[in-house]
Amino acid sequence: MLRFTRTLACISALGLVTAGCASAPATHAAPQFAPAPANSNRAFSPFVRSNGFLFLAGQMGTDSTGKLAPGGIKEETRHAMQNIKSLLERNGSSMDRVVRCLVLLADIADRPAMSDV
Fold first, then answer.
1. Which of 33, 67, 75, 115 could form a disulfide with 45 if both were Cys (CB 3.0 to 4.6 A apart)?
2. Has domain 2-21+46-116 been given CATH number 3.10.20.740?
């Protein structure tokens, strides 16, 4: 269980990404909250759109079934990054428009393996 908890902390923080959309609106509109996916047990919106930016919630290293990807921190990181990329692209942005990414690790020993990905 310790391994799962340590990995979960790392992967969920990977999704703290701010990504610019294609164009910023001329006026300040109210933030738009995306509904949580129907098959999700998470109590938060996957992203918020505000003034031309997407603010992503934490993305985990899960596969299409919602299960944690097998193979350890590298595979979980790959899946988390793919989940981030997919969410950005479905909402009119891309990885090359990311302006900030914050990663928090519960165990700094996972940093080299996570950084390799």
1. 33
2. no
